């Protein structure tokens, strides 16, 4: 699955989300296992536990989690949390 397509799915399903998706491993064309990593920033995460935040992302990805995506490493932040990382 293309990285931009995964970003679009997340951003279109989570309010005001900004998603950056990458491949944390070197792609092996003969043994591609579809591992991805995503950093998602959204005010929709405010007041939610980390588990609930990750569930929002998994819900946005829907059936792709069982067909196109083998594993997804997630880092989720509210805009305030993300801004504090840059300080």
Automatic annotation (TrEMBL):
A Pfam family it matches: BolA
InterPro entries per the UniProt record, alphabetical: BolA, BolA-like_sf, BolA/IbaG_stress_morph_reg
Gene3D superfamilies recorded: BolA-like
Domain of life of the native organism: Archaea
Record family assignment: Belongs to the BolA/IbaG family.
Protein name, UniProt field: BolA family transcriptional regulator
Organism for this UniProt entry: Haloferax marisrubri
Source organism phylogeny: Archaea, Methanobacteriati, Methanobacteriota, Stenosarchaea group, Halobacteria
């Amino acid at each position: 699955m293309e990285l931009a397509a995964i970003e679009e799915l997340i951003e279109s399903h989570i309010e005001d989300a900004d998603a950056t998706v990458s491949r944390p491993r070197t792609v092996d064309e003969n043994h591609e296992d579809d591992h991805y990593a995503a950093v998602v920033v959204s005010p929709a995460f405010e007041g939610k536990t980390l588990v609930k935040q990750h569930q929002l992302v998994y819900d946005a990805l829907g059936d792709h989690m069982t067909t196109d995506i083998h594993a997804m490493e997630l880092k989720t932040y509210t805009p305030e949390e993300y801004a504090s990382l840059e300080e």
